[in-house]
Amino acid sequence: MSSPYGSWPSPFSAASVAASSPRIDGARFVGTEIWWGESVPAEKGRVTVRSSSGAEILPAPWNARSRVHEYGGGSWTADDRGTLYFVDAGDQRVRRLTRGGDLTALTAPGPSHGGLRVQNGRLLAVREDLSTTPHLRAIVEIPLDGSAAEDASAIKVVVQGDGFFAHPALSPDGTRVSWVAWDRGRMPWEGARVQVVRVDGGTPHTIPSRAALQPEWLSDTELVFADDPEGRWALHLVALDGVVAAGPARPHAPSEADTGYGLWVLGNRWYQPLEDGRIVAVRTNGRDEVVMIDADGGVSVIDLPGDGHVSIDAVDGTRVLVSGNGSRAAAGLWCVDVGSGEVVAVRGGDPVDPLWMPAAMPIEIDGPHGAVHAFAYPPANPETTVSDDELPPYIVLVHGGPTAHVTGAASAAIAFYTSRGIGVLDVNYGGSTGYGREYRERLDGQWGVVDVDDVIAAARGLADAGLADPDRIAIRGGSAGGWTVLSALVRGGTFAAGISRYGVADLRMLAAETHDFEASYIDGLVGPLPEYEQLYIERSPLTHTDRIAVPVLLLQGGEDRVVPPSQSEAIRDALAARGIDHEYVLYPAEGHGFRSGDTIVDALERELTFLGRVFGFEPRL
């Protein structure tokens, strides 16, 4: 059957996208079972905990979600006996839920908690208290008997300050705790350090590090952590004499790939040590691979369906739990036996049909600041043909962060467009992780310049190669990606339409309204205030809305505390004043990122209808 691009019939409805591959939020071995966290779009994005036995461990209305650092992470954990510990989204208290259904509050109302970890029968967490001046964060040990629910002083504070903390880890003998810390005024990839202290008190000892991640104890006298002093995050080993480093940390099997990326959430795990001294680790160079690193530094690749945003969630003997997405499979959770090589899909992870979802093509485009990396998804529908003289419309996707990356994953959200005849180009512009520190730091001081140059270069490269209709290229992004969308529209000349999801429009407004974790982020991306105020004004899309001459769709969450609605509404008002074609949709109950199934459906259908109206095709919803 022949149909114009954009009008192809598709089996991928917006509703099927919303209900597609699970969003896994951590996994654990619990006795003979496997437990995992999972977002439920049909329940407004509630995060539940489920078991391989088929049981739902965390029933509604409980919702395991942390607000520490606003992005949360590590909102649940469990011990070997099947006791669940979780942070409820509503009040941020930590609760204990036994297999018998007994529910006990472990912390008092007030502070937020995240990064939960049970080791040796002890519960560690990251605590954030925004009621104090200055705001305080801490690594704490929470008593399991519920005493701290009535008496907050029962909580043992391991370390506390007005900076930031992540990844607490208890030594095997239970006498010391390690973690990563970074100061206010910095982002973790700019200056995080490993620290160690005795549980019974004392001054934390700092292990020299540059942008440290995830310390883990290999023994009572040795730590492993990730760091990037040579430009790539790699594992480093350090011997300890008590809490003091016995010598400098030494790299362990470094490579031209990253074991680690931006520490946005507290639950990320890029590697796990096995009992025999080997380490299962993720390596990222655009896409991910999972490797086994021997004690002597030998490396072998573990063949897995997942090769994007992979997390090594837990180990038990030779069994390893790995979650992520894939270029050949849907997002999922897998159990890998590194002894036998057996790989079992625990949740999701089904192979995708290559006729409908062919693997994305990694491409490299010459840009004004160097090579630009991207993944191209051409239109694909085995049941439809088009005339040879028509080129497809494309939508260029811009990830948020901006210190983040995409991996070319197979996705129903991508197939929603490609199966209808709309190509997708997912760009890892300069500043993205996954290609080393030099590529990541390309954006330093250049936000609104390098990212915009790169997405324009990528779009034009696709058109110049004869793969896309140059008159029908749109751009879509969320959060920091929305900033790049609006900035690219201000630049003009490349994109015929723009879709901004909760995008940044005004840097001064962002600096005044944003939360602690990112309060100084713009200092590195543009420059500090007040010295750089004029540059803030000049770079902000809101300053130059008179240059936007194409239709714009604005989608915004009403409860967004990272990029508040005031940003999108300022752009809306400026476009309205000039009579520019635009639509503004506010989802009152959504925060930073859309989680509810109803919202996901509505947003996708609005985007498709918008593109059809602008590009002149009749979409089939």
How would you sum up this structure, described in words?
This protein is of the alpha+beta class and 621 residues long. The protein is 16% helix and 34% strand. The chain has eleven helices and 36 strands. Strands 29-30-32-31-33-34-35-36 form an eight-stranded mixed sheet, sandwiched between helices. Strands 16, 17, 18, 19 and 20 form a five-stranded antiparallel sheet that branches. A four-stranded antiparallel sheet has the order 4-5-6-7, with no helix packed on it. A hairpin with a 2-residue loop joins β1 (23-30) and β2. α5 (450-464) packs across α6 (480-491). The radius of gyration is 24 Å and the shape is globular. The relative contact order is 0.10.
| β-strand amount | 25-35%
The end-to-end span amounts to: 18 Å
DSSP helical segment count: 11
Strand order of the largest sheet: 29-30-32-31-33-34-35-36
Shape: globular
Uncertain spans, ≥5 residues at pLDDT below 50? none
What is the gyration radius calculated from CA atoms? 24 Å
The profile of the biggest β sheet is: 8 strands, mixed
Helix content: 10-25%
Number of strands: 36
Structural class: alpha+beta
> What do the pLDDT scores average to?
95
